[in-house]
Request: fold
Amino acid sequence: MKLNIKNMVCNRCIMVVQNELNRLGFDVKHIKLGEVVLDRDASPKEIKRIGDTLVPLGFELIDDKKSHIIERIKTIIIDLVHHQDNVIKTNLSEVLSEKINHDYNYLSNLFSEVEGTTIEKYFIAQKIEKVKELLVYDELSLSEIAYRLNYSSVAYLSNQFKKVTGLSPSHFKQIREDRRKPLDEVKGKNH
Reply:
């Protein structure tokens, strides 16, 4: 039996969902972001129990087709941005259409109608979250981050970052570094 689950965004989510399902007495045959395959069918009562268990943890069972498509779009984008460095060489629209087997215009209209934002804005928001994460790790230069996330230039990445966050990447990084310093060091800068 296949269950579609909303809000699974990382490997930790996969682990939490699998542990909860095992705790409820289900054997998981396969699990990935947004999707679980159980080794047997679950009764409506068991499905309700699964849903009741997952909701307090921030997850939700998806039962209608439109919600399932929206969640697939999000999962594909999250996977592209956060788990596959510099893989997307074709258009996002082509990737989504191919993986979901729907015309991109349909996917785009559905996503905008349900989420109140465009697929492109969601994709950009995920990319900016990844930029923030990489800036905080402080292992890559902005140029390397731009390359990894397939930006055409550092300037384009910086402009998009500022448009979304209101800060330049360097200002964001400085604020993060200041938060890690002892308070007296941060105060000392201003006096």
